[in-house]
Write a structure and sequence with these properties.
556 residues, 41% helix, 22 helices, 7-stranded mixed beta sheet, Methyltranfer_dom, alpha/beta
Amino acid sequence: MFVAAFSEQEQRELAEKLTSLLSTYRHISDSYIIEFFSESLWDTLPVSWQDALGDLTPPQIADLLLDKETQDRRYPSVWPLSLLALRTAAHALTFPRKAPGGHSQDTGAAVPEEFQLNQSQSSLLGHIFRKHVKPKKQHEICQLGTGHLTRFLSFGLGLDVTGIEADPNLVSMATKFDRQLLLTLTKENQKSGNAQSLHSAPGPSPRHVVGWVNPKASWDVFIQQLGVIATESDSIRATTGSSEQKQQVEELHLEPHSCQTKAEELQNALPTQKTAINTSDSVAQINTQVFPSGNATKMLTCKTVPVNDCGAKKPASFVLTGLHACGDLSSTLLRHFTNCPHVQVITSVACCYMKISTKEQPNPPGVFQPSFSSDTVVDSCSEYGYPMSDWVRGLPGHQLSYKAREGACHAIEDYLHRLREESGLLRTHCYRAILESIIRAERPDMRRPGVQTVKKAHALSFSEYARLALPRVGLPADLPLDPVRVDAMLAHQGKVVAYFSLVLLLAPVVETLVLLDRMIFLQEKGFQSKLIPLFDAAFSPRNLVLVAVKPKEAQS
């Protein structure tokens, strides 16, 4: 049974400090770096901050501002106490991001040890599970033991897995890859003369379900989508066949006053269990992408028939996992965990915080909103993706804008690497900010238009970049530019980098508040949880895994 990572009072006090800090510097976290010149963002900083940051080199910005592990800081000038306080508070209040055995922040783009021999192939994952899987995803699968995740859980660990994905094309592709893996496995077994499967107890192929997880629907609708039904004999086998494994999961605990744990505890207790805590070998793997509106015609719709009226046996207990579940999907899965008696464990890795619904922005841009049929049962207690907890909702200044939440998705480790290497990529923000000022001079009504990425923009002169970028917003490629004005703005590239670093300093603070709100929500519902920096943050930036296991008495 889990015990609190830190007390309820400590969680609430941390939430108060986070909201206070973010409220104070909301003008920074809410700002868009592409408006650096058009909105004179540099002038919004105190003069003392401008003096301290204006002439820093990129490596100095990395050491003095962003890298929390730097020990010997050498300042070229005296910094104001307010800037020092911001840096110290931002570093102190955020959840640890370094995984056990992972790289420090200052190693930048270094790859995990499993990729030292081959940067494209994880040494921890069998070759048949690496096919079609990018290195970043290989690393995540190895660590979480969780498309590609369902395949490893099913064929690699022998679990009974159901995956739900909104895009029918991706479901079709996943099924195709399953068949390819089985064919490869059969051939290898024939060559070796080994009739045994990859896992000790043969299990079924993963089930792939086409469906959109409606955040407003009740948990029984979700159960209907998954089709997680077990016979009495299945439940008996799960109960009697794995007492040692069940005990391992039940004994997974959280040390008091600790925000992190050994990743080995999660690895040893959750992903390797074949019948953990009466799960009947069941794991529900949830899609990790927002459903594109173009595929709406093939979306699965579910009749809201109560589970008890389906004519089936009692639904099986199962583990719910979402690997980089986008936007409201993560918060919806947490609500299903608290409300659904059949979900016994949840492992949640969130992403795309800007796509979370809030009271101020119930329909964030870029999120598919299906039409609700009369069959849909809307949960009377359905709420927004943030905040989830009553406590955070009651704190003054808890609101997080779309821009603040979008900033929380940035990878601070990757930017640290750019700063230390003084990468040419650093000029990209300056280029886009200059372009924004040119666009507004020509079209005052056009603000922050989407500009399709210009390939290798950092390797171009600004005039070359502008020639390629302007037509993408409907302006002529040969639009006359004022070279004197452009050169004056290019001279401020260092200040653009320094300002963006301030924005990035607050990004982990925003992420911590979002995830802490979810921990407090679980606490309010009577469940302890733990946040684990499981992945190497330099390789997989959204590396914090929220884990909760229902206490034994709640599983009966």
